[in-house]
Amino acid sequence: MRILEQRGSTLQRLGLMYNGAILLQCLSITLVAIHDLLDRLNAGDSDLLLILALGLQVTVVASLLGFRTILMANRDYEEHMRADSEAARRRTAELFAMTDMLQAAETNEEAGAVLMVTARRLLGGYGAALYVLNNSRDRLDLARHWDLPAGYIAPDSLAANHCWALKRGKAHVNAPEEGGLCCAHHGGVNAVLEIPMMAGGQVQGLLILARSDALIQLDGGEELANLRHLGSALADSMSLALSNIALRDRLRTQSLRDPLTGLYNRRYMEDTLERFLALSTRSGSSTAVIMIDLDNFKDLNDRYGHAKGDAVLRDVAAQIVGALRPTDVVCRYGGEEIIAILPDCALADAVAKAEQIRLRIQGVTDIQGCPVSASLGVSAMPETSVRGEELVPDADASLYLAKASGKNCVFAAERITSGLTVARVSDKG
User: Model confidence over 307-319: pLDDT tens digits?
Assistant: First the structure.
């Protein structure tokens, strides 16, 4: 399209130059004729020659005026071309700057902020809504919106199979006032342009553009259709950024989480515990640790198979996470051992939480149809452990005492001057 426009502009300019050349040629011929007629007039020819000479003079004046008009049109055309060239240069510079900023964006929120700033500069008078595919890839959630007209309400989420732009992989105009085909999620009477964000053959999001004023013009759909090229350029840059952010998140998750249970791995646990203990030391609050080990897990694997054992581990992990706060961190310590770190949690509260976990794990028996139970050990700093490096060993020692005492129970460590003692705080009864 841009090539055709450039060819059309070149042909238009050549036409102006050709017409100017024709006028100059006619003017030259006319001037020769005038001089000839004047010579014949001076030689005594009839009055008719005078009339013809005056007519030729009028022709010269008209030719000069026409030539002047062509020169002015050519100048206006050149000024228009210079303005278009400057606008195109500015748009290109803005898009390059946006792409550069998006490379530094680490979250969808940061990428959305970059898009908003650039869109406001390039699409003055238009608002937008940005939708991003969620982690489960079953819907698109509203990430950011700005300058939308009062009559248009962007839904909080939308399904990909309800959007013509996403189903076709092409930009689509929703113009209900013009009787056009609209997406199922479109509400109101405002005309909007929806542009899918695709990268690597997969949907990353959706960009919706709408006039920022509330007035609905009769040519709203056509006006929005003219924005497809620039809107698609914005969407393409944004889709690559969203794809990169999602890839980084997946790689980060794979490096920090256990693939079977989805819990954090041991390396993440060590880094997190060190950070929590440093905060605990500065604030004077308590940090607790709960060590959890499934009872008779080897026998379960031997009797029911490793597939059943994996299913039990996944359900146990879900039960533990469900019993704790969002600020608590649960990690797979190794094998069937799981550790939970509870920041800003006193020993008594940690013991009560451990008992809830024990009961929830025991409930997995009914879910999986095989006996499931766990032994738990609890420690807390500074209540049971003087130094941070003692916290996990103290919880581990309590766990093994729980195992030796019949399993399926909770033991808490207690630091006293004579050394470490442990107390049984709950059991299967």
Answer: 999 999 999 999 9
| DSSP, residue by residue, 60-118 | HHHHHHHHHHHHHHHHHHHHHHHHHHHHHHHHHHHHHHHHHHHTT--SHHHHHHHHHHH
- CA dihedral over 83, 85, 122, 211, signed as positive or negative: positive
Q: How many CB atoms lie within 10 A of CB 157?
A: 12
Distance CA 252, CA 422 (A): 38
Instruction: Specify the CATH number for 108-255; select among 3.40.50.1970, 3.30.450.40, 3.90.170.10, 3.40.30.10.
Output: 3.30.450.40
pLDDT (average), residues 333-353: 94
Strand 374-381 to strand 410-416: parallel, antiparallel, or no bridges (unpaired)?
parallel
Q: How far is CA 221 from the centre of its chain?
A: 26
CA atoms within 13 A of residue 14's CA, in its CB half-sphere? 6
The reply to whether 108-255 and 266-426 are identical in fold is no
Top mean pLDDT of 50-64, 179-193, 328-342 is at: 328-342
- Annotate 382-398 with DSSP letters as a single string: TTT-SSGGGHHHHHHHH
Phi, psi for residue 161 in degrees, rounded to 5: -80, 0
On average, the pLDDT of the chain sits at 80
Assess whether pLDDT exceeds 50 at residue 418.
Answer: no
Nearest Cα neighbor of 232 from 213, 209, 212 is 209
Phi, psi of 43 (to 5 degrees): -80, 0
pLDDT mean over 268-283? 89
So what's the pLDDT on residue 34? Answer: 53
Task: Look up residue 130 and give its DSSP letter.
Answer: E
Where are any strands of DSSP class E within 253-401?
Answer: 287-294, 329-334, 337-342, 374-381
State the DSSP H helix or E strand holding residue 268, giving kind and residue range, or none if neither.
helix 266-283
DSSP state of 124: T
Cα–Cα nearest to 154, from 178, 121, 180, 132:
132
Average pLDDT over residues 240-266: 87
Residue 323: pLDDT above 80?
yes
b or e along 77-94 (b: 16 or more beta carbons within 10 Å of the residue's beta carbon)?
eeeeeeeeeeeeeebeeb
Percent of the chain with pLDDT over 70: 74
Beta-carbon contacts of residue 90 (< 8 Å; ≥ 6 apart): none
Class for the domain spanning 266-426: alpha beta
pLDDT of residue 211 exceeding 80, the answer is: yes
Q: What's the average model confidence in pLDDT over 184-200?
A: 85
Q: How far apart are CA 351 and CA 349, in angstroms?
A: 5
